[in-house]
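Hi R.,

Here's the chain you asked about this morning:
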Amino acid sequence: AIDDLKDVRNFAQMFSETNLPDSYGRNRRGYYMNRDGFTLLAMGFTGSKALQFKLQYIDAFNEMEQQVKFQVPSTLPEALRLAADQAEKISVLKPKADYTDKMLANPGLETTSVIAKNYGYSTREFNKL
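And the predicted structure, written out as tokens:
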């Protein structure tokens, strides 16, 4: 159950508690969750559908791992090409990283979820506004 996960690191980023009316109009506790929250919750499920989800997750993780494994260049031209590719990627991403660092260093910065909570909304409800 989600209540068992409240001590998990980044819980607030994965789950947002809300009240949802049932068919009689009574408020019932509910949660919005992002993909990480769903995955964390689903990993505890049992049954054939849960097993399929877990196996697909493992396959996707293994495929991703193969794509990101670092390959050591075997020749000088390969090493130079790799270095040039990396330098180009860095030059494209550096201005974005600098801007992000500047924004994150802003002492008045608050996340949308913190602002939403301050006004009594869930992050999803606040984003709709």
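DSSP finds six helices and two strands in the chain.

Let me know if you need anything else.
M.
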